[in-house]
Amino acid sequence: MLDTLVVIGTDGLIYAAWLFLIALGLSLIYGVLRVLNIAHGSFYALGAYAAASLIGLYGQRDFWPYGVYLMIPLAALAVGVVVGPLVERGILRWMYPREPVYQLLATYALFLILEDLTKLIWGVDPIYAYAPYTLLGDVSIGDITYPWYSLLLIGTAVVVGILVSVFIRRTRTGRVIVAMIEDPEMSTALGINVPRMSVLAFSMGTVLAGLGGAMTAPMIAVMPGMGAEVIVLAFAVIVLGGLGSLEGAAVGALLIGFLRAATVHLFPVLELFVIYLVMALVLILRPRGLWGRAEVRRL
Amino acid sequence: MLELQDVWVFIGAYGILRGVTLAVPTGAAVGLVGRNGAGKTTTLRSIMGLLPVRSGQVRLDGRDVVRLRPYERARLGIGYMPEDRRLIGPLTVEENILLPAWAMGLPDATKRLRWVYDLMPDVRAMADRRATWLSGGQQKMVALARALMAGRRWLLLDEPFEGLAPEMAARLATVLARVREAGLTILVAESDPRGIAALVDRVVTIERGEIVPDGSALSTGPGE
Question: ipTM of this model?
Fold first, then answer.
């Protein structure tokens, strides 16, 4: 029994770390821009493809083998810096004054376009980039052997969570972003350059999605369609935790991570059912999510 | 000089401001009075750029700013204190006050903050408290402090005395009197003209989105 609990705990943490990396960016984008960005799944896929390509290119040279890990953040940054500003300035800014349904349609259209774009660039065959996964070897936890890379994923999620938290709480730009999240209209009346801050926040969210994908690339076969499955789960995480909340993304990811791990080990056929059942219950009992705050009604 | 020239503002098909013309000379304080729904808040929000002006001009020192976005207008030196305070709850009092300085990259933010604190020692005493935990009156004081940080030239105050206890209202009046000495150009909206009579040079009345032609002149001041 204890062994099962250890396995559930470890698997749950690994899954939660992966979900957190992806959901954090989605939550940040919603918090600042009030846009439910379906294309976030495509940014995740682009991060995976970019990382797989860079890891492949790095592997062809006779470089220091551990340098391959630098390809992961590099891929995430490349996706965020190139795609983020292009999408925010080129598409989303026209959608802000419109009804949420138009924003959903626009980001869904973008999602489909980017899916096809990845097929055009990388083709439809799976791409493998295992080097970072195998290089570190394995570690035993109880009777179970885990790849060190999975623990690296947990460490990365913790470090990213701390860095984003410090950025939001301790830097002036972070405090300005909090102001935009809390009251976009008053923020602009206080002199905050909302368009510039929107590009920054959206690009940060895109980097985080790209990082999620780049960290995932060494663990899977990178192939078309990978963005679709992740976006639904990422939405479930931020809805559970509370839209636009950093802590909510962490709470939601942990909850779904442990739930999934427990059902996979104890009732495998209920894996997805349990996740969405809990999400439905939370939405019924606490519509703003576990960590979300009620909207303040202005008089 | 802050001027509105034949300003029309619509919400849907309904004209909220109908040809408002108003001038606040540099260094003067003008009171804009009227009943609830008369158009006071709409006037201030239109100056700030938070509501679109369908026609007419909003001029700051002769420059028409109608096409500028709110943050661009704020950067010209307008401080806006909304009726409902609109402090950023998760931020501390000092962070709220410093927000405009951070947003605009003001080089003299520390000096300006010291000036604001000297004007309002009560606010300095609660600098580290979260805005969420302040009383309504305290929030008004902090909202004024924040407006002073942004408002180097013009100050728009929306119902600053509304809902304040007499003691707090007296303190706010003292602060505003000292702000006037700093030479700021002030437009203050209030429902009750008696509350601002001693603070302003002139009172303008607004009714149903129109300036009443014979607004009473209470006294004359430096801008007259």
Answer: 0.90
